[in-house]
């Protein structure tokens, strides 16, 4: 070792290089505001914008799960240059630059993880037929389906779409559909008097909301279309 050279001075360049290797580049200031999420099954990447400062990987996963209606029985893995990034760390910890692309993979949870999510049930995601998502919190395994419907109506979670009626809190006539592996409109239509626990729901599960149909509107629309066709034939 040359005279006057300390061990710290010799190790410093290597330590910095290891840090840069992990981040796939020189450290970048601040936390990314926009990221692109790529999946193997989807041709179109998903853009996540307006991300807050100090966001953790776990918080980003939760945001992606809500955006993509990922059921809680599936766990998300995010990779940055092939390496899995851990939930407890911030995006800034990995020196991920603004606009970077992360790779996402979905895996099945273990039975122990599923049982834990059942016991932790506190909120559900409600998705309407237009793709909008609302969250209902403060739930329990003993909460009845009809209470979910009343909450949707009282909070006016969704504006009535054309051809549908608003839900009356006193008589919440609507449908809630549940599938353990969320597949859009397919699943079990829930019974008002049954509890969430009786369906084996997990914390942050997804329900599809189907509002009551405005039959009068649909009849008028059908009559107008019929009249237009008859008029076109008469020309």
UniProtKB/TrEMBL annotation:
InterPro entries: Ubiquitin-like_dom, Ubiquitin-like_domsf
Alphabetical list of Gene3D superfamilies matching this protein: Phosphatidylinositol 3-kinase Catalytic Subunit, Chain A, domain 1 (3.10.20.90)
Domain Ubiquitin-like residue range list: 33-111
Positions of region (Disordered): 1-33
Pfam families, sorted: ubiquitin
SUPFAM superfamilies tied to this protein: Ubiquitin-like (SSF54236)
Record-given protein name: Ubiquitin-like domain-containing protein
């Amino acid at each position: 070792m040359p005279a006057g050279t300390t061990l710290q001075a010799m190790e410093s360049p290597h330590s910095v290089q290891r840090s840069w290797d992990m981040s796939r580049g020189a450290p970048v200031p601040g936390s990314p505001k926009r990221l692109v999420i790529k999946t193997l099954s989807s041709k179109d990447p998903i853009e996540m914008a307006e991300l807050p400062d100090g966001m953790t990987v776990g918080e980003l996963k939760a945001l992606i799960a809500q955006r993509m209606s990922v059921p809680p029985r599936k766990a998300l893995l995010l990779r940055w240059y092939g390496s899995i990034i851990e939930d407890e760390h911030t995006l800034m910890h990995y020196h991920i630059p603004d606009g970077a692309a992360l790779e996402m993979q979905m895996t099945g949870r273990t039975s122990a993880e599923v049982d834990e999510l059942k016991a932790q049930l506190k909120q559900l995601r409600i998705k309407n037929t237009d793709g909008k998502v609302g969250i209902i919190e403060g739930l329990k395994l003993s909460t009845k389906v009809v209470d979910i419907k009343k909450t949707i109506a009282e909070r006016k979670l969704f504006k009535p779409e054309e051809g549908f009626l608003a839900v009356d809190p006193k008589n919440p006539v609507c449908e809630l559909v549940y599938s353990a592996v969320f597949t859009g409109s397919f699943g079990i239509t829930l019974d008002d008097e049954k509890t969430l626990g009786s369906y084996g729901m997990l914390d942050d599960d997804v329900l599809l909301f189907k509002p009551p149909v405005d039959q009068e509107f649909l009849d008028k629309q059908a009559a107008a279309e019929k009249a237009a066709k008859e008029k076109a034939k008469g020309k």
